[in-house]
Amino acid sequence: MPKSSIADTTAGFEYVFPAIRGVQARREFFVSMCPLRLIPRLFLFDEDELAPELRAQRVLNKARIPALTSYILDNPDSYVFSALTASVDGEMRFVGISDEGPGMRIGQLHISMAARFLINDGQHRRAAIEAALNENPELGDETIAVVFFQDAGLARSQQMFADLNRHAVRPARSIGVLYDHRDERARVARLLALKSPVFRGFVEMERSTLSARSNKLFTLSALYYATRSLLQGVELTGEDQATKVAGAFWSAIDELIPEWELVRQRKMTAAEVRRQYLHSHGIALHALGRLGNALLRESIELAFWRPRLEPLGKIDWSRANPDWEGRAVVGGRVSKNHSNVVLTVNYLRQRLGLELSPEGAHIEATYLGGER
Predict the structure, then answer these.
(1) Alpha-carbon distance 68 to 367, whole Å?
(2) What's the chain's average pLDDT?
(3) Interval 128-169: pLDDT, tens
(4) What start and end residues bound the annotated signal peptide (predicted)?
(5) Do both 234 and 147 map to the same domain?
(6) N or C terminus of the chain with fewer C-beta within 10 Å?
(7) Closest Cα to residue 161, out of 84, 90, 91?
(8) What's the gap between Cα 362 and its chain centre?
(9) Which helix (H) or strand (E) segment is 176 a member of?
(10) How many Å apart are CA 11 and CA 5, to the nearest integer?
(11) Quick one: 204 and 279 in the same domain?
(12) Cβ–Cβ < 8 Å for 21, 94
């Protein structure tokens, strides 16, 4: 229906939102709490077929929606969503509960039903809310904060999107693991970092990269990904057993890497070990975790897999070892690419006399073909 027809049929009808009035950059804005069931009905996002220069935000990435939807549905008592930000292309009228004092900022926001609501920030949250409501309509009575701005045209809406996202910085993965209490593997990694004799005192808990002078050997994110790979698909009875098995594995690895013990004894610095050796870098931990997973899938019994790790004690982990070039090291720099992780796992598997996985065999053949 053309916009003019919509305006004709909705004349005199309004949406009324309880709201708080604010001012930013000399422009009024309003904050309200909206029931989730209203979100899909009111708020639109630009059509995908429009050229980027004619849109006010990025195209919806539909691949993100299932994970966000599951987050809501799986955590009905603890999910958290930040406010949506929307521009209103239509008449808005704010009526405060009084004409002076604090009451001037608290009242009701009246918006014509002919107005068009355009999301400037939060289109993926909006889509996830809609999908979650389809599966659990009872969520409709819950609310989300919405910030309303008067639409001042495409250029202003595009600038709002740019400004809202300009300074958005994802937190380091390590601190995400540190604060994540839902993910069992994150809890296991934290316990290892805080209590395991191998890692205690030598794990960077907040940052996902280590400075050249850091006195830490590992990052929490590297330990998390390595331990998650180690335990993936292994039949365990719960978090306690997972922590016990992972702790035993990393203790066994520690016995085969003397430099880690030298750091704990203060005979080498963590910076020296990271600079000279590969085994404290994330790619090596990840590869060791994947290698251990192949053994644990056969049996979690220490007597089964511990002796099979012995050949690792003879590996030259120094970064100067030419065996690592093209596998874990590319042009003298440690690489974290997926193919490099697989190539590093392949190297370790070969040293233990294990067959390569189908993916590993394919990547190995490509690697060897490129060497010729």
Answers:
(1) 37
(2) 88
(3) 999 999 999 999 999 999 999 888 765 666 676 677 667 666
(4) none
(5) no
(6) C
(7) 84
(8) 29
(9) helix 173-179
(10) 10
(11) yes
(12) yes
Residues 6+ apart with CB under 8 A from 114: 3, 6, 7, 10, 11, 90, 91
Same domain, 191 and 254: yes
Q: Are residues 199 and 177 in the same domain?
A: yes
Q: State pTM to two decimals.
A: 0.76
Q: Is the separation of the CB atoms in 200 and 194 below 8 Å?
A: yes
Number of domains in the chain: 2
The answer to whether residues 63 and 184 belong to one domain is no
Tens of pLDDT along 295-327?
Answer: 999 999 999 999 999 999 999 999 999 999 999
CB-based burial, 215-230: b 16+ in 10 Å, e otherwise:
ebbbbbbbbbbbbbbb
When pLDDT is averaged across residues 101-115 and rounded to a whole number, the result is: 88
Single-letter residue type at 307: P
Name beta bridge partners: 84. Answer: 146
Measured distance CA(313)–CA(320) in Å, rounded: 17
Question: Residue type at 120?
Answer: N
The distance in angstroms from the start CA to the end CA of the chain is 65
- Can you tell me the distance from the alpha carbon of 326 to that of 371, in angstroms, rounded to the nearest whole number? 9
Q: What is d(CA 30, CA 40) in angstroms, rounded to the nearest whole number?
A: 19
